[in-house]
Amino acid sequence: DQQVKQNSPSLSVQEGRISILNCDYTNSMFDYFLWYKKYPAEGPTFLISISSIKDKNEDGRFTVFLNKSAKHLSLHIVPSQPGDSAVYFCAASAGAAGNKLTFGGGTRVLVKP
Amino acid sequence: NAGVMQNPRHLVRRRGQEARLRCSPMKGHSHVYWYRQLPEEGLKFMVYLQKENIIDESGMPKERFSAEFPKEGPSILRIQQVVRGDSAAYFCASSPNRMGAKNIQYFGAGTRLSVL
Known about the structure:
The complex is a heterodimer. Chain A is built from no helices and eleven strands. In chain A, about 35% of the residues are buried. In chain A, strands 2, 4, 5, 9, 10 and 11 form a six-stranded mixed beta sheet that branches. Chain A has a five-stranded antiparallel beta sheet with strand order 1-3-8-7-6, with no helix packed on it. By secondary structure, chain A is mainly beta. Chain A is about 0% helix and about 55% strand. By secondary structure, chain B is an all-beta fold. Chain B has strands spanning about 5, 10-15, 20-25, 30-35, 45-50, 55, 65-70, 75-80, 90-95, 105, 110-115. In chain B, the strands form two sheets. In chain B, strands 2, 4, 5, 6, 9, 10 and 11 form a seven-stranded mixed beta sheet that branches. A four-stranded antiparallel beta sheet of chain B has the order 1-3-8-7, with no helix packed on it.
């Protein structure tokens, strides 16, 4: 039962343009969402998060949008840079502060110079 | 401030041997989580520990796998009698103990286990 889904396994974008990554979830108990970036042979690196009481959170080039009614969130990266080429994971948690993360399958982003 | 430290980075075991994976959380963090990633998949939660306590082990296989986070020293994920299907990347994460606030989990570089 995949509670968090990233339906696009890969994305290719030109340097300087916007990258939009999508994530859908099914568990209505999820109330905190995070995006991680992962390079090969490294651990995931935290990028940005959003609580379910908000619909947008912005940090520099990264913006996360949350649509609770659609159970959908997206990560926008603008402008995209070659160093952004990595696998991006969406993750969600429910309830108490220390709860486990449920991850999507990841989207591989390639930023072309 | 050192990040989450995992060792070894790579571990090769033959079928039937034991694998021990270690994780030292970030300084000041008292929550530790273990995740497993199979090739081309996302990370799957295994277990959540605080010092000397297992809080949630709902993702741990019922047999051969165990985890601990002793009062002193790193957290250990132990896999007994390894099989080829245990080959994966195992990631440890830690978070601070700030009650009433959502805690971001910070990940180590992982241990890549290969079972021959």
